[in-house]
Amino acid sequence: MTSYQGKTAWPSVVCPIFCAFGRAATTGSLELKNYRDRLTERGMGRFEVLGLDIDRDLIRSLAKWLADGGPEAARIRNLVSSSIAGEGSKKGGILQALRRSPLVGADLDLARSHESGRKVKL
Fold first, then answer.
1. Separation CA 110–CA 99 (nearest Å)
2. Rounded CA separation 119/122 (Å)
3. DSSP 3
4. Residue 54: φ, ψ to 5°
5. Crossing angle, helix 70-85 and helix 56-68, to 10 degrees?
6. pLDDT for 68-85, tens place per residue?
7. What DSSP designation does 55 have?
8. CB burial readout 5-29, b (16+ within 10 A) else e
9. CA angle 39, 44, 48 (to 5 degrees)
10. The pLDDT of residue 9
11. Per mean pLDDT, which range of 37-46, 55-64, 81-90 is the poorest?
12. Residue 87 buriedness (CB in 10 A; 0-12 / 13-18 / 19+)
């Protein structure tokens, strides 16, 4: 602590700045914690997604529909989930892709010759 002509320099400058920001940060943090606790009680959570600016309203409205609950939200959830999942979620997808290959029925000779290998001195 430095003094200037017998007076301390920092309390008059530092304390109002620190106290103002300290209280505001603490109050804001407490309000944010309470808000997130209320969201958790309702079974909701906050999360961040990255997307295009043109999709912002679409994503927000979709989130509101899903958060409302009810049969309409369940229908939308099932519709979006099934359209995103596509055919990749079904069992046997790799086998179907191999059967669609242009090499099916090409009569390729895939037999390997059997060789004994080389001799190695140890």
1. 17
2. 10
3. E
4. -70, -20
5. 130
6. 888 888 888 888 888 887
7. G
8. eeeeeeeeeeeeeeeeeeeeeeeee
9. 100
10. 52
11. 81-90
12. exposed
Q: From 71, 72, 46, 50, select the one nearest 59 (Cα to Cα).
A: 50
Tokens for 25, please give them. 């940060």
pTM: 0.43
Rounded CA separation 12/15 (Å):
6
β-pairing, 7-8 vs 3-4, is antiparallel
Which residues are bridge partners to 4 per DSSP?
A: 7
| Structure-token match 């519709």, residue found | 79
End-to-end CA separation in angstroms for the chain: 78
Please, how many CA atoms are within 13 Å of residue 61, restricted to the half-sphere of its CB?
Answer: 5
Name the helix (H) or strand (E) containing 8: strand 7-8
Buried b (16+ CB within 10 A) or exposed e, 42-52: eeeeeeeeeee
